[in-house]
Amino acid sequence: MSKVIVITGASSGIGETTAKLLAKNGHQLVLGARRDSKLQQIVTDIKAAGGTAVYKSTDVTDLSSVKALAKLALDSFGKIDVWMNNAGLMPHSEFIKGKVDDWNRMIDVNLRGILYGINAALPSMRAQKSGQFINMASVAAHAVHQGGGVYSATKAGVLMISEALRQEEAAAKSNVRVTVVSPGAIATELVENVTDPTTKAALEKYYQQTAISPDRIASSIMAAIDLPADASVNEIVIRPTGQE
Ligand code: NDP
Prior knowledge:
7 helices; 244 residues; alpha/beta; binds NADPH dihydro-nicotinamide-adenine-dinucleotide phosphate; 49% helix
């Protein structure tokens, strides 16, 4: 069944790859991120391949911008079946480096952005008595390493927010499903946003040796979306087979 699927952070990496796979399989896509030109190209690619997609420049740290993305979905297709809270960043650094701006950006995008997505989409899902959130966490939600304290805190927060939402929607009998995706190392632009040069060099080396294609994540997400509505995948933990 064709679904209306909104994806934040759809201009690269996991978001872009998942959007293209879902569109190829007949779903209708609504894409948001800040880089307008990237989104425009992705929508052009999707349409050229016979799919359906619209986009809107979106900053997930701005509630009105996130609500405008939800409005685009409702105006274009009349409903929101799936909202994928995917936008995120991982500028690791040790606390002694004092990268307060990076800490704040992670809290704003990785945590506040997810809450704004829920705020924008949940009322219409409640009204139609069906829906699904796909919230991007990470294996870093389950374990912390040096330099990753703030990132892990935000991603562990995504787990807690998602589980509370799942319980609330189950209690309300709203048929809204909640799926957390916790990937390991995936080859995307994520490491490009690391601002501490030493950490960035180490991460680039690690990702070159370890990371797998975002295709793998996209397939897992599509499986969770395509599952019959009476079953809900609550978390997908997926990492490279060789990742320790
Ligand atoms: P990318 O850097 O390729 O994608 C991140 C996306 O987030 C981009 O499309 C970017 O778009 C968007 N974004 C960043 N800030 C904002 C903002 N303020 N408003 C809207 N969009 C924003 O990395 P990934 O594809 O890897 O990351 C996707 C998700 O997967 C993230 O939540 C990440 O934490 C998670 N993840 C990734 C892993 C990996 O190894 N790659 C592992 C575990 C989790 P733009 O700049 O155009 O706004």
